């Protein structure tokens, strides 16, 4: 009896947890553009509230763990990276985590940032805000 009831309950629960009717809402995607190539950043900590629904998706609190899911970009000192984030956020804040774990704010101008003048491994976190929500995007670079 339990072998039948348990799978049925799981299906009912999972079906009830589907907060997005098909085709109505799509989580914004963020891309970093370097040397003409587009790389999809790893999303984390997504919140959106719109007519009829609300969603909160929490990613790992460990930024290094999130960055592990991104194919590290090999860049040169002073290279410029551009960003493209869907649904035109009203603001974007960028921070950089250095190899020693310190975090710095990064200046963003015209959806572009300049790579550090010092060699090393860096993790970037972009916090995008819209009127109806917010989302964090993560990527990493190795500066040569």
Q: What can you tell me about this protein's structure?
A:
This protein is mostly beta strands and 144 residues long. The protein has one domain (22-143): Immunoglobulin-like (Sandwich), CATH 2.60.40. It is built from two helices and eleven strands; from the N terminus they run H-E-E-E-E-H-E-E-E-E-E-E-E. The strands form two sheets. Strands 3, 4, 5, 7, 8, 10 and 11 form a seven-stranded mixed sheet that branches. Strands 2-1-6-9 form a four-stranded antiparallel sheet, with no helix packed on it. The longest helix is centred in the N-terminal third of the chain and has 15 residues, at 2-16. It is globular. 19% of the residues are buried. Residues 11-22 have low confidence and may be disordered.
Using only CA atoms, what is the Rg?
19 Å
CATH topology: Immunoglobulin-like
Distance between the termini: 62 Å
Overall 3D form: globular
| Separate helix tally | 2
CATH architectural type? Sandwich
| Main sheet makeup | 7 strands, mixed
CATH C-level class is Mainly Beta
- Determine the mean pLDDT: 88
Low-pLDDT windows of residues? 11-22
Key terms for this structure?
14% helix; 144 residues; Immunoglobulin-like; four-stranded antiparallel beta sheet; seven-stranded mixed beta sheet; mainly beta
């Amino acid at each position: 009896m339990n072998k039948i009831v348990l799978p049925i309950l799981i299906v009912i629960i999972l079906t009830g947890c589907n907060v997005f009717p098909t085709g109505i809402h799509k989580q914004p995607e963020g891309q970093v553009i370097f040397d003409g190539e587009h790389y999809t950043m790893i999303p984390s900590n997504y919140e959106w509230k719109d007519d009829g629904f609300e969603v909160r998706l929490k990613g790992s609190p460990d930024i290094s763990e999130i960055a592990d899911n991104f194919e590290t970009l090999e860049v040169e000192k002073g290279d410029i990276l551009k960003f493209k984030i869907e649904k035109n956020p009203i603001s974007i804040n960028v921070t950089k985590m250095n190899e020693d774990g310190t975090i710095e704010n990064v200046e963003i101008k015209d959806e572009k940032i300049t790579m550090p003048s010092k060699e090393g491994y860096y993790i970037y976190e972009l916090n995008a805000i819209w009127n109806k929500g917010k989302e964090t995007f993560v990527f990493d670079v190795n500066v040569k």
